[in-house]
Amino acid sequence: MLNLPSDDLAALSLRLWGSFLGRCARRFLSMEGIDRCIVLSSQCFTALIPLLILVSTLAPAGAEDIVSRTLITKFGLEGSAAAAVEQLFTTPEGATSSLSVFSAFLVVISGVSFTRRIQKMYRAAWDEPAAGVRSNLFAALGLLALLTEILVLYGVRSLVRHLPWDWLWMLPISATAGLVLWTSIPYLLLNRRVHWRRLLFGGAVSAVGTSVFGVATTIYMPPMVTKYTNEFGMFGITIALIGWLLAACGVLVASAAVGAEFDASRESWVVALKTRYALFDPAGDVPTVDPQAAASGLNSSDLLILFRVLVNWLILAAAVWAATAIVPGISVPGGFLTLLVVSLLLGLVNAVLGPLLHLVALPLTLLTLGTFALVVNGVLLAVTAGLTDQLDADGLGSCILGALVISVVTTVLELVLRPVVQVGKGPRTR
Predict the structure, then answer these.
(1) pLDDT category, 11, cuts 50, 70, 90?
(2) Pair (259, 307) in one structural domain
(3) How far is CA 253 from CA 102, 118, 126, 248, 402, in A?
(4) Does residue 269 lie in a domain region?
(5) Which domain holds residue 51?
(6) Which of 309, 245, 193, 334 is closest to 47 using CA atoms?
(7) Are 228 and 315 found together in one domain?
(8) Backbone angles phi, psi at 219, to 5 degrees
(9) pLDDT at 237
């Protein structure tokens, strides 16, 4: 595994914190990104449900199930989960006249409130002050633009689906639509104080992030909705939707932080991109490189170290997967991301408790010619299983066997990948 002296690790942490990614993380924290994700997702939920009810109520005859069919198709639901969604959005007969006016009013109020929350998020990211009454006007314009662009995109996608190789057409259309959407919306919500060229990079990051999130949705949402529906009934759909909206808002808030930090950065590669693609206000000064910013951040040796850390993390995740496949009593319910989380937690437990337990068990380890070290590793695996519900272990025996498999697989993979990990290894640049 990768071992670094404490002073090198501290210096690497400082350089990482001062790099572009570190500054993006600092901006995300300074704008209270986590709180804004929670507020945005909850506000979006209160605006989304009335909108879906209104659409179901005002749908033409024969299309009353348009909302439920769309959700079932988007999330790939079937069985009890699909039935629960259909039941949730079924409109009672005679409800059209009584609900349409009230729901329309509620949708408008909730929508404007939601766009105002997005407006505050962008203002916090770009350090822009409020504009008084004009902010409300631009929030309403932002809501109108958001709904219009979403409807246009939905119509274009409906037409493209009838073409051959529709998925090939869908990629550039979705990318272009996402870029236009997430450049024009902050442009309006920031009261047009920030030139749209400066918003292009953040719009591109948002477009890529939402596209990747859309692909991940089709993979992780079906089992999640099915699980929550089986456990909580129709309330499980609400839980799944809230979690989905929270993740989506996290993508938007993080993208806003990255876009704002890119605009403020004066590193050489940032200035080169701004100059090449004119990502700056034409009425302002041409961006120049700040020598202090260019000298800070990560160097090539730091990137190599981070690459080696990533490889070691993936090796440990592969070893944990091998243990779940070989040892009957060890299981990790979930996909690849769950394996990454469990392996990260196992690595932290080994780093914190491992040295202490191995020191205490040193006499027994010597007496057993190193065999007792497997027991210690099994205890560490059992501690990890006790800290998370994502790792199931039947007992200490299974943990010991699992730890043995993890040790063997980790050693083999490190030997195989050592030439790759050590590529470019040399004297570190100070």
Answers:
(1) low
(2) no
(3) 31, 9, 12, 9, 40
(4) no
(5) 12-264
(6) 245
(7) no
(8) -95, -45
(9) 80
Contact by Cβ (8 Å): 266, 289:
yes
User: What per-residue confidence (pLDDT) applies to 427?
Assistant: 45
Query: Distance between CA 81 and CA 226 in Å, rounded?
Result: 5
What are the structure tokens assigned to 410, written together? 């980790």
Q: Are 118 and 257 part of one and the same domain?
A: yes
Tokens of 422: 């050590």
Alpha-carbon gap, residue 414 to 363, rounded angstroms: 28
- What is the reported pLDDT for 329? 86
pTM: 0.73
CA dihedral 257, 211, 41, 264 (to 10 degrees): 10
Which pLDDT band holds residue 112 (cuts at 50, 70, 90)? confident
Residue 399 Cα to chain centre, angstroms: 31
Instruction: Tell me the pLDDT band of 423, cut-offs 50, 70 and 90.
Output: low
Question: Which pairs with CB-CB distance under 8 Å and at least 24 residues apart come from 303-311?
Answer: 304/424, 304/425, 305/2, 305/4, 305/12, 306/16, 307/421, 308/2, 308/421, 309/2, 311/417, 311/420, 311/421
* Number of domains present in the structure of the chain: 2
Whether 82 contacts 72, CB under 8 Å: yes
Per-residue pLDDT at 12: 66
Asked which of 125-129, 154-158, 224-228, 418-422 is least confident by mean pLDDT, the reply is 418-422
Is position 428 within any domain? no
According to DSSP, residue 267 is labeled -
**392 φ/ψ angles, rounded to the nearest 5 degrees:** -105, 130
Say whether both 257 and 305 belong to one domain: no
At 135, the pLDDT band (50, 70, 90 cuts) reads confident
Residues 6+ apart with CB under 8 A from 267: 20, 289, 290, 293, 294, 297
